[in-house]
Amino acid sequence: MSRATENSFLPLDIGSFGEESKAVIDFIADYYKNIEKYPVQSKVEPGYLSSSLPDSAPYSPDSLEDVLNDVNDSILPGLTHWQSPSFFAYYQASSSTAGFLGEMLCSAFNVVGFNWISSPAATELESIVLDWMAKMLKLPSSFLFSGTGGGVIHGTTCEAVVCTLAAARDKALKQLGGSWDNITKLVVYASDQTHFTFQKAAKLVGIPPSNFRFIQTSFATEFAMPPQLLRVAIENDIQSGLVPLYICATIGTTACGAVDPIAELGKVANEYNLWLHIDAAHAGSACICPEFRHFLDGVELASSLSMNPHKWFLTNMDCCCLWLKEPRFLIDSLSSNPEYLENNATKSNVVVDYKDWQVTLSRRFRALKLWLVIRRHGVENLMRHIRSDVELAKQFEALVAKDERFEIVVPRRIVLVFFRLKPKHGVDGRELNRKLLDAINSSGRAFMTQGVVAGIFAIRCVVGATLTQEHHLKDLWSLIQEKARLVLLQCTQ
Ligand SMILES: *Cc1c(COP(=O)(O)O)cnc(C)c1O
User: Where are the N6-(pyridoxal phosphate)lysine modifications (predicted)?
Assistant: First the structure.
């Protein structure tokens, strides 16, 4: 007796697959149609969900209709709507129809391309798409498979930083004679604006926290890392008998959008033989436009570069491109070849086995999604998408700058406007702006977050949600003005 007739249970029923999928797609289309009706930031209290869902799993199957009703009634209220056109918080996760369809195909095939033979198309498409992206960013051929380098798609920047740090660590330990005792000598450098991902990654690969150097930034460089201070720090460490290992530079920092001077940092890195990684998680997308490409000037001096198409490149979560000039150091550090994965393709040494380029063995076919995004938009529309967001950010910045009650704290580089209400005498600027931000966010009409530089608390407005249009920024500005009046009134009373 077949499994199906025995208990009429088909986990993958080709007959009803189309119909059920269509019901979900209709649900999603309705969600997007109504997205502006929901409060952008969720208003639920911690633990809200357990009161509306049963406390154990159903023994018999639930209908799809029941599940979708629960998604509607119980899940949606607990979502912060990242795809809302009034979402200006963090850095966005920009989705698109193409990104969504790519994700569907990836999920449909559900292949696990850990090595070439396990799904040749998954590996080969990934290498091709990374070369496409590299060419769009005008990276030197030293980062391309068609040149002397190569790349890989990770889930997140955090993984890219962990893996490149491990590669740099193992390369240095080898140069130092091979003893792991030398790990206590390795020193890593970043600015005080660098994403916390870097500290987490350095800890994970065993760099002693006392060997993390945070180069101080200030208003003088608009919070970019000053190369001369980096040089001083490296010299000091060498004098103390330590071994400078790795610099993490950022294009588009998280708090205020600062851009580190890659060419100058690259010169220091090369002079002292350090691994320079460029974290362009968010702003890397802008570098496909000729007018922003200069942020990457000097990239030829770096060892590796990563950016997240899932942030501002219309590619649904998750997708992080990492390129390396010398992938062999990554492979040396991360490869392992157990008997059960042995195959002739690997032995021939002509294929890429991506399991040796990342932490995990299993991996998703993310290249399919990025390929769809690039093909369905074309470079032309991808550039248009970046430019229209920059234009909106510019207009918003002008509105803020014109109002005397406000100030732009750090000038906008790309799409992040970093501003605050100017505190009057005797008023705490942090408290004032915290109140303003809370008032805006709790209205449900828009969502922004905050950043702190040199002790100054300011509000971050990032433009980049796919559905955002000019009128959403006008509405945001009206909302800010409305709440500013109230907050200012409160503090003069
Ligand atoms: C978002 C971001 C990160 C973290 O990215 P993940 O992909 O979530 O690990 C790191 N650096 C910068 C500059 C970012 O904007």
Answer: 311
